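Thread: sanity check for a docking pose with flavin-adenine dinucleotide

Original post by kr_44:
Hi all, I'm comparing my docking run against an independent structure prediction. Below are the sequence and the ligand SMILES. Could someone generate the full complex and paste the structure tokens? I mainly care about where the ligand ends up relative to the chain.
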Amino acid sequence: MIKICIIGGGAAGISASISASKGNGGVVLFERTGSVLNKFVLSGGGRCNISNENLGPKYYFGGSGHFVANVLKSFGKNEMLSFLKEIGSKYTVEKDGRIYTGDAKDTAHKLISYSASLGTEFRYKAFIEKVGIKEGGFVVSYRDREEFFDRVIIATGGKSYPETGSDGFGFTIAESLGHTVIHPLPGLIALDLKPNPFSGLQGISIDAEIILENKKLGISHAQKGKLLFTHRGISGPAAHNISGRYIRISREKGTSVFISFLPDLSGDELNRIIQNGINTAGKKKLLNLLTKYLPDRLVSRILLITKIPEERILAELRRDERTRLISNLTRFGINISGSAGFRTAHITTGGVSLSEVHSSTMESKIVKGLFFAGEILDADGVEGGYNLHWAFATGFIAGKNALKKK
Ligand SMILES: Cc1cc2nc3c(=O)[nH]c(=O)nc-3n(C[C@H](O)[C@H](O)[C@H](O)COP(=O)(O)OP(=O)(O)OC[C@H]3O[C@@H](n4cnc5c(N)ncnc54)[C@H](O)[C@@H]3O)c2cc1C
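Reply from moderator J.T.:
Ran it for you. Here is the predicted complex with flavin-adenine dinucleotide included:
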């Protein structure tokens, strides 16, 4: 019998326990807290956005896209839907492709009972302090005890939302076994602005685009989506999805971030709209033209920043004002001063280098019999079910392959 140790009872650990328990192995899952799936139950605001119809490497950042593509080839949308059926969970697909199970707590309950019914032994309040290599296997230390296993799957998550149990200790274990950890940073997080040109506008949400640039590094990313103004700066999917990439290069000289408030209009198109307004309705206030596209309070703020009086009628708009306005509406420079950090980040960017892991099995290229799954790996997805899909996919592959004879 192959004895398999899974460290961490998040989505990746549970998924690994299900595929690993299908053979004639003995599977023990160690979880440091008193319960499993603590982060999973918070997902999708409790509705559990578990996957997405539109999967693909372009929705993930971090290590190699080739690695991500291989994982999604082995465990894609169809495999996820079969998996949900197998555990007895229903799901719905939303217009934008997001797949929800509807109730994260109920899905968690189904996952735990299914895994237990297959024979997984759950050990709670069992913090794994060390993993040593011994006689073709591993010695796992916890609560002043040591236990031998043939295989170890590390599924300890990253450093985000540490109140759920993931504080980054898995990275220490991975490094102690010879692995390289790409510097972990918070991802999918709200960003603070200093100065905050939108202070007082909290609660306003618009469709926008955030542009991240560093010409020296040849980097230019544009992220469209909902943008929410907060007390401290910006949040919402557009801000969350750019945050990880911004944080990675934030200390590099020449990194700039811009907001396009009208992402579907180019500067030229906007210029034509203003010109058309001047030609056909010169007595109309500029403010009234712009509020067709953006909330009143935001338009007032942009006019204030652009130093154009709110009373300005289109016919009296000066050329310099028009140039500044178009620039501010399409490329408004912001100064990001930080983020709330790992405490509220939804994911961790960075992690165990994918170049040291086999993409077809999740086995370490450095230590035979050692596997990784989930957020501990250097891959992070955008919002929309991509991170849970990653956790389930890599967990499933790791569990299945841990069962195989060496
Ligand atoms: C509020 C919130 C909402 C989210 N919503 C979504 C969503 O809707 N869709 C989506 O795709 N993603 C979402 N995510 C991200 C997603 O939940 C995570 O990427 C995913 O749960 C990671 O799973 P994991 O198993 O790799 O790690 P985790 O869920 O972090 O689990 C790791 C587990 O390992 C345990 N552990 C750590 N170290 C040890 C140790 N030494 N010994 C024993 N146990 C240990 C921890 O206690 C923890 O239980 C959300 C995240 C947050 C914080």
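The radius of gyration is 25 Å. Hope that helps with the comparison, let us know if your pose agrees.
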